[in-house]
Amino acid sequence: MATLDREVAARVVLQQCLNAKLQVKPQDEDSDAEWVEIQRGMVIYICFFKGSSKELISKIVGSLLNVKLSESDSGKHVAITELPGDILIVPQATLGGKSKGRCMQYHSNAGKEQGMELYELFIAQCQKELEAHAQWLESRAVLRYGTYGNRQVLTLDTNGPYTHLLEF
Question: For residues 147 and 18, what is the distance between their CA atoms, to the nearest angstrom?
Fold first, then answer.
C-alpha cells in the first residue's frame, strides 16, 4: 500500500461481481465485436503511474489475490482464490486522472509503452499465482482481461456496491 512519504506507483480498484462482460475488440466492417466474460468473482481495474516498475508487480499481485474481500456463501470474507472466483482485469488509465479546472489530465500516468509492458507482466504474474492455487484451478475459475490502450465497453452485475481502492 502507498504511504504518505512516497508517490503512488499504481492505483487499483477492486469490484466484487456476480458476472461481468467486457468488450475487448469493437465491431468493424469485417468482424463482430469480441467479448470476454466472467461469472462470480472480482473485477480488477488497474492504472500504472510514472515511477512504476517491474519489481512492483509481484507485490500488487500478492496483495490483490490474497486480500479477503470476496464474500463466501457462508458470508465469511475470503481471498478470491479461496472463493474460488473468476477474475476480470481491466486496464483503466482514467484512474490516473487529476482534475484541473473543468478538465481531467493524465500527466501522472506511465507512458503507453511502459504501461502496456507492466500490464502484460501483471496479467502473466496473476495467471502464474492463480495456477499455484489447486482450489482455484480445480474449480475451473477463469482469468480474463481487457485490451490495453483501447476504450472498452463493460457490463457488470453486482450484489452491492462493494468497491475498494488500493494504491501501491
Answer: 22
* Average of per-residue pLDDT values in the chain: 92
Distances (CA, A) of 26 to 22, 29, 33, 87, 113: 11, 10, 5, 21, 22
Q: Name the one residue in this structure whose C-alpha cell is 461481481.
A: 17
Has residue 5 got a pLDDT over 60?
A: no
> Residue 71's pLDDT band (boundaries 50, 70, 90)?
confident
Q: Report yes or no: 39 and 18 within 8 Å, Cβ to Cβ.
A: yes
What dihedral angle (degrees, nearest 10) is formed by the CA atoms of 4, 8, 9, 10? 120
Q: Find where cell 507482466 sits.
A: 121
Residue whose grid cell is 474481500: 69
The 10s digit of each residue's pLDDT in 49-63 is 999 999 999 999 999
